[in-house]
Predict the structure.
Amino acid sequence: CREAAAAPGTPAWPRPPSLVLLIPKGASWPEPPWNYPAVISPQDPTLLIGSSLVATCTVSPDFHLKAEDLYWTLNGRRLPAASYAALGPTTLSVALARLNGSKQQSGDNLVCHSRDGGILAGSCLYVGLPPEKPVNITCWSKNMKDLTCKWAPGTEGETFLHTNYTLKYKLRWYGRDNTCQEYHTAGPYSCHIPKDLALFTPYEIWVEASNRLGVAVSDVVMLDILDVVTTDPPPDVHVSRVGDLEDQLSVRWSSPPALKDFLFQAKYQIQYRVEDSSEWKVVDDVGNQTSCRLAGLRPGTVYFVQVRCNPFGIYGSKKAGIWSDWSNPTAASTPRSERAAGGCDPKGGEQNTTLRRELKQFFGWVKKHAYGCSNLGIKLYDQWRVWLQKSHKTRNQVGKEPFTLLSPAWVGMGRGYGVNPPPGLRGVTWTRRLRGALLVSAGASRR
Amino acid sequence: MELRAGDSWGIFTFLCAALCNLPALPALNCTEELGPGQSIQKTYDLTRYLEHQLRTLAGTYLNYLGPPFNEPDFNPPRLAHAERVPSATVDLDLWRGLTDNARLAANYRAYSRVLCSLRALDGQGTAELRHRLGHFCSSLQGLVLSIAGVMSSLGYPLPAGPPVSPGGASIPPNGGAPNDFLKKMDDFWLLKELQTWLWRSAKDFNRLKKKVPPAVVTLRMEARGF
């Protein structure tokens, strides 16, 4: 006995599975010479857009079907009988004029049916255009170790046919072509060459696009690896105050380690912005120093600073290199003098100043009385402010409750440790959570 | 762990109670392996997950094949050449009459064959399709390994050798289909069979789960008076 076809819980796509073996009308197909009920010609042709086609469907003699028992569909839609012609007792043709590009890249489905709708045979039509030359080839090398190139296809997107791209390269003065193997590393039209690259000698690079209708080759780009070098962002970016100067901050960083012996002519760029703004100011004339002083800043304000590096002139290259990514933002604040009170929201400003002063007192105390607390300081507080800025969830809360400590790092540090507040700070009016978390983190580092 | 009725139950119960209440039991070197019950549950969960994934994959794939393949009531003929996956549609009594071992082995073989066939599709289709196929194949690989785990934990041997088609020949890259349209039909049936296999496997594993005791804890006892 057999279960009902639509048993409860059976999946709905494309229709519930039936446990009855599906045997269509016409029974089983006989073995050679006729493996299949019908044959279509041409089988899986490739055509240019706008061309015309006459296809024929010839039914196997074992099927006892005549030409007038057949009909055609293209992509599921029935073709008009006016375009049919019987070429023999068991052969029906269809004429297709001015074909459009294929509806899907797997080919248009031209199907020959028997009168009851059963499928007798099918042919995939590939209608499209030959590819266009790929353009805009750009390449870069990370620390002279590899080469990544990207390009754009000639037409807006892929043509109606699947297009294969192959990046090739060769040394200018030697004959052998090489083929790039690792595709899609930096987007859909990109390739990565991981090794065996020569310096001080030019390469020729080009991209070949091919589809069923032909091949197109891009223009050849010539480059020397040393002219397209990029590197990592500068590490160890530190931003600190310049004594008591209210309008200045000092930025220091290290040169990127991978190229540190070669960066005599490297250039750096700094960009900075005020905490609440999204507008970055760029400092361009940093040269190849690894420190810089920012001036003309607003007092008592938190700034976010980023640095990047361009390995210009590496190994004597005359060309500009490629800028690295920006370093992660580092935060610091300019001092606020006691006198300057006008202009800003007095309440908020005052609270900020009081809080910062007390925080600094606290951190000073912690450093004296606790071990391993070197990281705990006003800088850590500023870094936390940076994190707060980034976190969308807490953005609204910054205004209302600035000291909601949702950072997992803070929560993690505080968990499980209970420390009583020292006598000197008991009278301070902080929110309970701030006190708890800061003090337990002090306790944690005391361990 | 096989327990003979009567003699060991008392000790076993005591040990379990002791294990739950003491943080450390120095007299006992206890290793808890993933018992067959948990393996089966995991396999069942994975099967249901794949069923869900298949819906999305099939949608994308059938749209790539184009109409009429992606039409809801599409039902092309099945042609008699080397099947890429054993048919899931067999007589239910026959299926239920198999031993657990035979059923598990059939599942293992079927999904291994499907995995081979799907992997052969790699490189075709849009980027989105390739991405979905890759993800699905990873999950399917997990299912094959999971079934192997269940078989091993129940003490059954794994089916040997690489998967072969019923005719004895290995599956050629285009699945034996001589033209692109027939290959599309094969792909359609592969997905449909896979859907049925997953649906039925879920039932199989659910039934198997009920046969096997829930938590089989293996205790290896060092000599210390027990």
Strands of chain B lie at 29-30, 219-220.
